[in-house]
Model the fold of this input.
Amino acid sequence: MSPEEWQVILEVIPDARDGLTRTERIILYVLQQTQQELKNRNVPTAMLYGRVLEYVDMSEAELHVYLDRLGVKGNGR
Done:
């Protein structure tokens, strides 16, 4: 199996420790870091999306799917 194929597998298989995929873990990490920078205020989705894109290539719609799956609630939701 090529390194690229392994990367795809690692992206979709949840980790046995906590059930999170690599992408979900990155989103939660970036969210936490950004919340700390904003002194525990809510993080605008656009800001989160821009920062997550530094690690993972995804559409804004995909980010919303991940946020819904992770139970992250935004304003007005």
In short: The mean pLDDT is 90. The radius of gyration is 13 Å.
